[in-house]
Design goal:
With 114 residues, the protein is mainly alpha-helical. Helices cover 60% and strands 4% of the residues. The protein has helices spanning 3-20, 26-39, 49-55, 61-71, 81-89, 92-95, 109-113, and strands spanning 46-47, 79-80. Strands 1-2 form a two-stranded antiparallel ribbon. Helix 2 (26-39) crosses helix 5. It is globular. Mean pLDDT is 74; it is low at 107-114.
Length: 114
């Protein structure tokens, strides 16, 4: 395949992906920033596993791992504000088996019965 053609195809795919990405409103971004800052206990601008555990009462290790698999796009081990907004806007957290319909982290009933 011609190298220039490959770049052209990649550019078209990138434009299509960006065009489909939802854009949050200013009000949404403000709400997300307030949420994010309330979770960011050490105020370093990143959420780590300890902060996630502290912000979600009763969360287990599997749920923390699921959260990072869904939200940590660059696999850095922490979640930036941009990654958090992306997850909220694209409803990644709503689709997680560790959240309820409103995006609130929950426990499986099976685990609570044990």
């Amino acid at each position: 395949m011609n190298f220039n053609r490959l770049w052209w195809i990649l550019a078209v795919l990138l434009v299509l992906c960006v065009a489909d990405a939802p854009t949050p409103t200013e009000e949404d971004v403000k709400r997300y920033r307030e949420e994010f800052q309330s979770y960011d206990q050490n105020k370093d601008g990143l959420l780590d596993a300890m902060e996630i555990r502290a912000s979600a009462e009763g969360i287990n290790d599997d749920e923390v791992i699921s959260f990072f698999e869904l939200v940590d796009d660059n696999d850095s081990g922490s979640v930036s504000f941009d990654e958090y907004v992306n997850a909220m806007v694209s409803h990644k957290l709503d689709e997680s088996p560790a959240t309820d319909e409103e995006g609130v982290i929950r426990h499986d009933e099976k685990e609570e019965d044990d």
